[in-house]
Amino acid sequence: MGLLKYIARRLFFLVFLVIGVSLVVFVISHSVPSDPVLANLSQRNIDNPEMVEAFKAKWGMDKPLYTQYFIYVGNLVQGDLGTSIRTQRPVLDDLKDYFPATIELAIFSIIIAIVFGMLFGIISAIKRNSAMDQLIRGISVLGVSVPSFWLGLMFLLLFYVHFGIAPGPGRISPYLKPPVEVTHLYVIDALLAGNWSLARDALWHLLLPGLVLGSFTMGLITRTTRSSLLEVMSLDFIRTARAKGLTEKMIIMRHALGNALIPVVTVIGIGFGNLLGGMVLVETIFAWPGIGQYAYKAAGNLDFPAIIGVSILISINYVVINLLVDILYGILDPRVRYH
Amino acid sequence: MLLRIMKNNFLFSIGIIVCSLWIVIALMAPLITPYSYLAQDLAHRFQAPSSLHWFGTDSIGRDVFSRVLMGSRISLIAGLATIILASIVGMIYGGIAGYIGGLADEIMMRISEMVMAFPGIILAMTIAAALGPSLYNTLLAMVIIWWPNYARVMRSMVIANKENEYVEAAKSLGASHFRIFFNEILPNSVGPVLVLATLDFGNAILLFSGLSFLGLGSPPPTPEWGAMVADGVLNFNYWWIGTFPGLAILTMAVGTNFIGDSLRDFLDPRLRKEL
Amino acid sequence: MRKNLRVLVALLTCVLLFVVGCGGSKDAATKPEASDGTKQLIMALDPDYETFDPGLAYEVYALLVLHPVYDTLMQFEDNLDAPIDGIAESHEVSKDGLTYTFKLHKGVKFASGNPLSSQDVKWSVERSINLKGNGAFLTDGIKSIETPDPDTVVFNLKEQDASFLTKLTYNAFGVIDSKLAMENGATNAPDASTSDKAKLWFDTHSAGSGPYVIESYTPKVEVVLARNKNYWGEAPYYDKVVLKAISDPGTQLMMLEKGDIDIAFNLGPEHVKQIQDKPGIEIKKAQSMTLTFLLMNRDPKIGGPIANPDVQKAIRLALDYQGMQTIAGEGSITPVAPFQVGFLGTLPPRDPKTAQDIEKAKELMKKAGYEKGFKTTLEVATLAVEGMDLPTLAQKIQNDLLQIGIETEIKTSDIMVALDPYRKGTQALSLWYWGPDYPDPNTQLAFLPGNPVGLRANWTAAMNPKLVELGKKAAVEVDKAARVKNLEDIQKIMDEDSAFDVLLQHARHYATRDNIKGTDYIDLYKINLKNVSAK
Amino acid sequence: MEDNVLLQVQNLKMYFQSESSFSFNKKYIKAVDDVSFELFKGETFGLVGESGCGKSTLGRTILGLYKPIAGKVIFEGEDIVSLKNNRMKDMRKKMQLIFQDPSASLNPRKTIEDILNEPFHIHKVGSKVERKAKIKELMNRVGLSEYHLSRYPHEMSGGQKQRVGIARALTLNPKLIICDEPVSALDVSIQAQVINLLEDLQREYDLTYLFISHNLSVVHHICNRVGVMYLGKLVETGSHADIYHNTQHPYAKALISAIPNSDPDQQKERILLKGDVPSPANPPSGCRFHTRCPEVTDLCSQAEPLLKEVFPGHFVACHGVE
Amino acid sequence: MSDDIGQDDLLRINNLNVQFRTSEGVFRAVRDVSISVRSGETLGIVGESGSGKSVTALSIMNLVPNPPGETSGEIIFNQQNLRELSTEEVRKIRGNEIAMIFQEPMTSLNPIHTCGKQIMEPLLLHKGFSKKEAKARALELLKLVGIPIPEQRFKEYPHQLSGGMRQRVMIAMALACRPKLLLADEPTTALDVTIQAQIMELLKNLRKEIDSAIIMITHDLGIITEMCDRVVVMYAGQVVESGPLKELIREPLHPYTEGLLRSIPTITKEKQRLHTIEGTVPSPFEMPFGCSFQPRCNYSTSNCSEQAPDLIHVSPDRAVRCWHHVNELGKD
Asked: Is C418 in the same domain as C328?
């Protein structure tokens, strides 16, 4: 019951979030010295006042800002995010097209980050202060320190261009046809279609961008797992477990790890949020047709409906992920009470 | 204390050495660069690394080595400015929210959460696109993205310290809110925020270079590392153009993170406790 | 506990195996022939198209896709001087130059199987007019369209227009299957700009009679064109053409080297150099019609010292054109005035070796009273023009101007942001590029004082009445020789007095695998996809 | 007799909200619920009870650290609950608090001298020289040396820190000191030192103590009168002798019998209470003790017993006591 | 040092030393401690914080954080020197033959496992019970320690229980394998007075039912008095006095014990000024010369500050570490 109430509260917050985010972009859009009209009409049409008026009327720009905003929120309530000035398509359709690519990559890299990060963190904590520990800590620090755009460049240069062992940019090899879209996640769609080679190709294409994108989160998870495990190992109930005669391995697996994972879950949430932020850079390098590139283009074109759309999407995503993290928290830690 | 930690901690020592090196380079940059970071030489563009140009030359024949060295100044300044400004804003905001508590706190924290939920890099891009890319606008965007972290830490510290008995002691002596906040709570709360800020330095440099990679930093010919990597992507097969500035970002971030990581271990009393 | 560990290890092994297995089982470096034997052309480009609605599209790469999909009355084969008949069998121009009559090929069918008639032509053009899209200005001169019979279309113009046949090559005049289009929400009604609902449909479908149809379009990913089975002309070689959206030239290059793609279209001069000796690759170079120029404002309130004509001339003399051509890459040239080499009446380009004259430039600065120089801002948009990074060029200019004492601070902004002050004429000194609206020198007259581009530098008609007069003459002159004379005079005057300095006419660099042909450059279409085939 | 009263607490109620402020059905923790008692000049009044019974909250509410939701705290004839800020500040000089945890009650970033100077700063009293003299005097009085002044709290032992806390409470010459478990955190041998010090100071400075403790032995030793609290209620008050030798309330009886016996020869009958203390957020109906009371009757769960004077000066709140 | 207590001792600690190397120097937490416990008896170890009583208990279980703890001496349990056994062998004794109850029931139980699971754990581990058997036994144990509705508590998490209940669960857990020796480290300190009484009563009753020896470690002489047969008094890492409870309380031999007894306020005593032991416990890094208690001792003589006294037996059952008694013995 507490949980449901909590979820309801978070969803209630979402409403404010969406309003807040859209308001911020609206305010920015009003304070912009340049005019999206000029940015999106051809040179010839700019000189034609009739065209400009028509354009403004079409996008509601002839009305005062607050009216525009109310119109926007009104549409939003009906699930209409407006139409992108740049692509002239409903923003919602655009997001539907771009988001799955981003999500596929994000999920892949978060899996890599979690698996390796936790494994490294556990080894590092168990072998505290050993050479192994130092090595892993070094790697994790490298992971959080390496600029993703540069790492992407280096990976492509080395593994694609130089050694030719990794696939190039894009979601699948250029000569392949994308699978019939069901979930819009290529790997899964290809598997659903029973096309193994395509699934493999799509997965293979996820590797480099996934590694690049996940490196930061992996470092973060390694670090947190290590320190959290070390901290838990110094707690009283570990002493109790020892007094019961449990082996070190049992103590770590049964008593320490479960408790140590609790803060790691938070970090995974943060990491997932970071992934979406880092997308812009990685997608640029890997020609990944995702939300990051869309946002980049939208920002450059002052395409405010699109910017708001992306912002809302990512904000909602952030809240949802945090909500999932909180729920997971409750599963991992019976002490958690939602309020 | 520094030496004592250094003696026992290999990674920390590396961090200190790397960072000091970069600080020295940044301070002395104009004296030690072999060429002017602006000098163009179209006859010698795209030169591979050699004894003349250690890191090669770029698309208009500038010495990449000199530009990388000069670039350290911008990165250091950007990193410092961001964390200082963001931590000041965050500390004030979080301090107030935590001290007042109740509904005001709830509202203030929801607002900061909203900022955190807002995709930072998109906000930065929008600001840069709207106001034009420049160092100041980029810093502004970074501070806007960054302050809620500090606000959160500060708030939780203030809330924790507010419950301390020495605060009650001051209250029972009749101290004003102002005095309690500035004299009792603040000095005991800033520590973790400052630690967080130190740890964040590397992240700030990374974010800044990412933004300048997207062309949102200061305009050319400023030798910004991120922009130089972007130049390297444009001139793909001349690997040195992008590789060295990227390595510079990496080493600086690694250095600060080594320090931060070890510092965290050292300052965390739960890990430090020996009994 | 052991269970947990085992699960973890198993999970990890799975991930590793999968990853390694994928890598081992597949050779990323070769492009296998499609197993079903379909012939497929893959081209990588950095596209700017936003829509494939022929009535709305007006982007640089729009015609690359739309030309092979929608037939037009006129088209270019290889020479931009002279358009030839497209779906029109023949055409006739009335004596007064106001009536154009076209006879259509008989028995042409759309890809849908619907027959193509003059009604479709009229409907399509009227839709373009009423949609008021970005390319609609091309239709501005049309007074009325008549269709005396199903094979004949007559255009009545409001006034003489020497470039009307050229304009007809654009997709705004592409012939749409009106029946099919109307089924999908299209209309040619006067209020089409609001009542037409077919844009989204057109983005992923097509209703043309060209050799290809749009099979699918995934924004930011690819456009797939498939062979039109009902095509009336000679069938193209490829069954499918895939246009991959890959914005980064370096990536395009890598993929071409690997054989993943057949054409890498957005290469810079430097990229080309890198693959000069690579086997299996053919480097293509062509004269592009894109200009890069420096805008110098004539309004002292905006430009300050820049507004002084002597200073502007000094700047023209101070720049190192040879160096700039090095940056822009082999094949780039520097026209004297904003008229592209390749158009009718264009003067031979500057000799880059002698064009720079610092001494003279300094004298002019002294004459203007700025012997000690001054400070100003150089505004530039962050984008690449024909593979050349504009901010890089700006840094070169910054360097050159320093020699005559002009200290500039570069201000970069996104193109969409920079366009605003540019169009409002509030930039003192800025670096811009220009592509012709349609392939005719008349489109360049916009640079003259008092004309739209001229006014962006606040170069008003009053400042050079002679030039204005010459320009007016050139616009209406029908006689070819007189037109050439006129245009040459304009260029000569502009070499002496102009608010612009044309820096470069770019070369277009691209590369293909060496086993294909028919990939020659033609500015309007970029590559005429219909003509591409295997060697 | 009335002149002797220093402090009167009348029907004091202090509730805390348990849910966050956005919640609609607010729950309250009734930490102090309708408590009344008096404090006479120069006496030591002991307040005993288990953790969560509200004794510390009561002490802090009397001091004005919490704003009570109802009731009066009359100090020297003036209700301090309704006092305005300035008057309240003056009043604070007369009432001071000594804390349980000497490490937590001293700001770790200040030297002992700073800590002792703070009361003067806040109230802007005394010249520099006067302040210095007073601090020195106090330091000597609580058994610390002058060289301790430059130390930081973490450089001192628990007993020494508690002495600093006592010295701080004395700087402004208060009349009432609320001692909140002042010796609980100390080692046995130090505990005795501090208790003796408190007793000496009371005599010397004419202090009145409100002595809050869970340790009935300590309270037995130091207090003249005692109040026993259970779940926010005062269940029995009376003189030292009343409480320890004529115990009336079943809870007080159980509490006293629970004290570990320090005489190995004396075997005593222990009253063991069932179960745990219920949550103050949801206290039992009627008599709050009825869930654990060995002498419970039907009435207990229905009606709340009032504090009645069963013997002169001896008040008990129990249906079973006539 | 000779130890003439019989061979029937369940546990005998001989000359135990534990020291920690810290950045401030070497901290000798336990110095030359010898203690013995017979089967079935309850031994109290009393001392103030820092007296080394908890570390002594932890060393028996080999639970002293190691490194940086360094231990020497013998710990003979059941004729085996635990210090010579392998880690694996000691582990098999822990929780099985020797069990321990800790002070903080809140932090000493794993918050993410149910109480039942935690009680079952040693049974599954040491006794090879099936899950079903273990559960049955766990429920039995819960009943034994006086937990109402054991079936429900079995499924609950520690945070759902009150402090007293948690301590009962801890006790149930410790008793699971019927240990021969139970170490209770301040088992009631964190509890409220009435709950403390409940737990003490429980332990007293259990002592009759289970036949384990108990070592009760506490700072509270009251608890010792109620529970123990024999008492060991520790000060600054050393045993200063030991003996049967009643004798020791009635006639303390060491000045520290005497001071301690006199400084505790009790409700049975008349109200009078408390006796105090002046000064504070010495810092472990700055141990005074000679007798550790000498700076605080009222009877201190020059001898006391020059040489450290040994623990000497004044009678078979009683030992004290004080020069005055050495001298007295010498006189006799």
From this structure: yes
